[in-house]
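Known limitations

Files may contain more than one protein. Parsers should not assume a single record per file. Below, a two-record file is shown to illustrate correct handling: read the sequence, read the token line, then continue until end of file.
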Amino acid sequence: MKALVDLGERALIERIRARAGDVAPAWVALGIGDDAAALEPPRGAYDVLTTDSLIEGVHFRRDWSSCRDVGHKALAVNLSDLAAMGARPRGVLLSLALPTTLTVEDFDQLIDGFVTLAAEHRVPLIGGNLTRSTGPIMISVVAVGEAQRRRLLTRAGARPGDLLFVTGTLGGAAAGLAILEAGRKRDDLDAEAAACVARYEAPEPRLRCGTIVARSRAATACIDLSDGLAAGARQLAEASRTGVVLKASEIPIQPGATLDRALAGGEDYELLFAVSPRQQRRFLGTLRVMKSLPITLIGQLTNARDFCIEHDGRREPLPDGFSHFTEQ
């Protein structure tokens, strides 16, 4: 079986180019093949840029996840950031640091996972970088989007009294990670456990939902839940200079997960919206087209600068979410 060292950099770049395809949107003036990419600037809109990285041994393990799933996730986490801003993706840059012993088959699978999701959301791969790693696989992505000037969603636009809505279900990704860490065999997983593993390995960015809400201007703020609901709610409230109360009984927990995993587990990549009570009907109306995506009212922002969760009428401090630089 061939390894990357058997092909060399130029051949690998050609494999990426072949998988990405040559058809690009009109706004891509220059894509893969030059020293940098060039995009036509969006008229009357902001450029919205985000970047994120996946490191082998920190964000994934190859004895757990396929390289195809790793490629998918590397793009998904970046598209989720654009979704939280209400931005439409315009292009992505992919940088890879890879061990020379990686097989060509695994390389192809990683790229296929990436470009398949890119094609699903009509976002072109416009360039990047390829280098050797003497250690783990390292994947860095830069995603470029656009948002109309008065339709950009941020964390800082909410006000006391705004309602908090969340998409989908929570806790599944953290439950899936726990299943993999426990060494459970995939063939022995029931449907609930398998669905949780899938949430961890192949998250789905809520791009359509984010752009629909931004276009309607029905939400005052938004954040994606990469580090857990508690962290996301706290960060949105801090940016908007409010407090927050979440209702434990209303939080939509994925089957097979727990409230603790929903609050502090992370990697669900759902969206948390703040919505004025006067805009509640409009907000829900704009999302009727998202028929298969649950939208749940789970709390409210407050004047008091406290971050709480309510259990049966009792309020407790929100737990901390995931952080890379604390003991796990």
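...continuing to the second record:
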Amino acid sequence: MAKEQSQFQLIWGLMLAAMGIALLYRIPQVMPRITEIEQFAYIRPFLNFCFYLMACILIAGGCRKIYLHIKPRIKP
């Protein structure tokens, strides 16, 4: 059971990091379409900050899970 849980955490970490990278790639493509909506046009800097922050958190969380999975295997 512990090995299955460990593998699940590794896969989850990889997916989190991949989604963060995909979000970084997608933000510049989607942001012009979002700012076409009149209500969002004046808060574009805030939206950029929020989306990039979300991408960084996803990448950091994924890397942390991967590191915690690999850490016990590394002998000092």
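Parsers that stop after the first record will miss the second one. For reference, the second record is described as follows. The chain has one domain: 2-73.
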